[in-house]
Design brief:
Thiol Ester Dehydrase, Chain A; 3 helices; elongated; disordered C terminus
Length: 147
């Protein structure tokens, strides 16, 4: 099932800390994936699906694959806007389109696609995404949250 284009993108605000950067004060490339992970987690939380609760119920979301393109660097103390838009939904997986932008000038810094699989916690075998989550993803929802 393709995600509906009418659902607004989710925006998570975060700040670049010293620990996110290399010796030159530039965000280390792999940390963009961390920012994207946080945005996906906060998107699910905003929709009422807290990952720690889902884990206690035997359900996990795990990254199956990711790709990223880098356009410009983020630097120490930059405020970032990280989007998390479901662009495809299948029985046991969600594909997110994500962007990391600098808040000050809206410059696109990084863009990626991440495929997350829904699995059983005890076996790590695929399982269907809960119907309640599928229903929420199919309809309009809130569009942003802050940190």
């Amino acid at each position: 099932m393709r995600a509906q284009s009418g659902i607004p993108s989710f925006i998570h605000r975060c700040r670049v800390y010293y620990e996110d950067t290399d010796a030159g004060g530039i965000v280390y490339y792999v940390n963009y994936l961390k920012f994207m992970e946080r945005a996906r987690t906060e998107r699910l939380r905003e929709l009422g699906f807290v990952q720690s609760r889902l884990a206690r119920e035997g359900l996990l979301f795990v990254v199956h694959s990711s790709e990223a393109r880098y356009f410009a660097p983020a630097r120490l103390d930059d405020e970032l806007l990280v989007s998390a838009q479901v662009c495809e939904s299948n029985r046991a997986s969600l594909r997110f389109h994500q962007q990391v932008r600098r808040a000050a000038d809206d410059a696109l810094l990084c863009e990626g696609r991440v495929l997350v699989a829904c699995v059983r916690a005890e076996s790590l075998k695929p399982r269907a995404i809960p119907e309640a989550l599928r229903a929420v993803l199919a309809g309009p929802g809130p569009s942003s949250a802050g940190e």
